[in-house]
Write a structure and sequence with these properties.
16 helices; alpha/beta; 7-stranded parallel β-sheet; two-stranded antiparallel ribbon; Helical scaffold and wing domains of SecA; transport; Rossmann fold; SEC_C_motif
């Protein structure tokens, strides 16, 4: 879908191999603006999760007593709430970010670098925010202005207002001037205060990042560490782990078994490079597994992508109005070919279902071709020429009846509606197919090959269905006089299956400036046809239910 892919992120280096192998994209690391001086401490491993959390609380209590700000990262909302309860029991003030109150949490996380602040966040909340040591003076000033009763709209920049400032009501301009004046007064005060606090925080070692568990991906761990030590600031980070952690249980190695077997108290931490490397290898294993899953999904997506290209290209051509009549005749030819193929697949002409073909042709347009005419054909090619000539002739009569400009508008709207409706149904069917395609492996079949084969067959059915629906719609649409210059697809009227043998009553000839489609006759709409109301559903699933 995209001619060129590129991007920028601070954590792509660990995925460099996958980006190159899958997308042929090279990862180019850019040096930091200032030298990174953050200290990344070795992991501490405990035997149980309870012992780990007790140690985390003790560490937080000591650093809070000193005044050092701490950002705690958890892997889930449940873990953050569990830690929050322990901190409350110890009477340690803190903020919890669970990505539930986005506006408030965005303001809280910007102040996570203030003196004595403790902020507990999941991997959903707060990542990517620039945490300033000592606090963010802009955010503090805005909070105070709002507490004093000023409206949030009065703090918006001029470009964010719905209209130009001079066009706003006088009362709003007066209120905004007062709020802006107060904001700048508070901003000057907080700039000085945050500068003093920032120096105090740096003296304590900067922002301390504490991770309560390793994630499956090293990229997320690096993202958490990266909240500290930004722009050359001091900082420190450390992960607390336990043998009860999910990553440890799923990918336990010999090194971890060695730790488990040692006769150590539960509350005593183990700090060993061998264990840390084993954890990193476990993370690498998970990353490779997840990478293979993404690679496999991409192979399945390529099938849908090729189909999507065909549909989108056809829609673009219709929207741009490029030779709609040629597209209509192509649909007509596809519909005729599909009908003949369905009824005359046998090599011997005696086995052709000419009666069934004649009856089905009559549902598409009021044809005069009888079964005897079809039986007299020596080949399917001769039969195709006969049917196509009759269909093209009736189509030309419809164009003369409605007028060329109206016919083009009919073609455009009908094509777009049918393509959109059929494409939505096709996507649902493809999703249903993909859900169970892996079971084909039980029958010694490659699920990917089966997906490609059946997807191709279903797409062919889709294209035939689009062509047939288009022909049915256009051949039975009615045009009436109306003073309104607009024309809407919701007024398409399609004759019932019982009356398809009768030619629709000719309507008055009109030009494009004074023609619309007649109101739909709900009772005469075939149950499997698209509902005339424009919902995109079949009639039997929409207004037909009431009948």
């Amino acid at each position: 879908m995209y001619e060129k892919l590129s991007g920028m992120t601070g954590t792509a280096q660990t995925e460099a191999a996958e980006l190159m192998n899958t997308y042929n994209l090279q990862v180019v690391p850019i040096p930091t603006n200032r030298e990174m001086v953050r200290v990344d401490q070795a992991d501490l491993i405990f035997k149980t999760e309870a012992a780990k959390f007790d140690a985390v609380v003790r560490d937080l209590e000591e650093r809070h007593a000193k005044g050092q700000p701490v950002l705690v990262g958890t892997i889930s909302v449940e873990k953050s709430e569990q830690l929050s309860k322990k901190l409350q029991q110890r009477g340690i003030p803190h903020e919890v970010l669970n990505a539930k109150q986005h506006t408030r949490e965005a303001m809280v996380v910007t102040q996570a670098g203030r003196l004595g602040a403790i902020t507990v966040a999941t991997n959903m909340a707060g990542r990517g925010v620039d945490i300033l040591l000592g606090g963010n003076p802009d955010g503090l000033a805005r909070q105070d202005v709002l507490k004093e009763g000023h409206s949030p709209e009065t703090l918006l920049d001029e470009f964010a207002l719905p209209v130009a400032l001079e066009m706003m009501p006088p009362d709003f301009i007066t209120a905004r001037d007062k709020a802006q004046q107060r904001y700048h007064e508070l901003l000057e005060k907080y700039i000085e205060k945050c500068k003093v606090e920032g120096d105090q925080v740096r003296a304590l070692g900067g922002l301390y990042v504490l991770g309560t568990e390793r994630h499956e991906s090293r990229r997320i761990d690096n993202q958490l560490r990266g909240r500290s030590g930004r722009q050359g600031d001091l900082g420190e980070s450390r992960f607390y782990l336990s043998l009860d952690d999910e990553l440890m249980r799923l990918f336990a190695t010999g090194a971890l078994s060695w730790v488990m077997g040692r006769a150590l108290p539960d509350d005593e931490a183990i700090e060993a490079k061998m264990v840390t490397k084993a954890i990193e290898r476990a993370q690498s294993t998970v990353e490779q597994r997840n990478g293979e899953v993404r690679k496999n999904v991409l192979k399945y997506d390529e099938v849908m992508n090729e189909q999507r290209k065909v549909i989108y290209q056809r829609r673009d051509q219709i929207l741009q109005g490029l030779d709609l009549k040629a597209a209509a005749m192509e649909y007509l030819a596809e519909a005729v070919d599909a009908l003949i193929e369905a009824h005359c697949v046998a090599e011997v002409d005696d086995e052709w279902d000419v009666s069934g073909l004649a009856l089905e042709l009559a549902t598409f347009w009021p044809t005069k071709i009888a079964a005897a005419n079809l039986a007299s054909c020596d080949s399917t090619d001769e039969m195709y020429d006969l049917v196509m000539a009759d269909a093209s002739g009736f189509y030309a009569l419809r164009e003369i009846e409605m007028g060329e400009s109206v016919m083009r508008e009919v073609e455009r709207q009908v094509m777009l509606r049918i393509i959109d409706q059929r494409w939505r149904e096709h996507l649902e069917e493809m999703d249903y197919l993909q859900e169970g395609i892996n079971l084909r492996a039980v029958g010694q079949k490659d699920p990917l090959i089966e997906w490609q084969r059946e997807g191709f067959e279903m797409f062919g059915t889709l294209m035939k269905g689009i062509a047939q629906d288009f022909v049915k719609y256009v051949m039975h649409v009615q045009v009436v006089n109306d003073s309104s210059p607009s024309s809407t697809l919701s007024n398409i009227q399609q004759t019932s299956d019982e009356n398809v043998d009768d030619k629709p009553a000719p309507s008055s000839k009109t030009n494009s400036s004074s023609s619309v489609f007649g109101a739909p006759d709900w009772s005469k709409t075939p149950r499997n046809s698209p509902c005339p109301c424009g919902s995109g559903k079949k009639y039997k699933m929409c207004h037909g239910r009431a009948n």
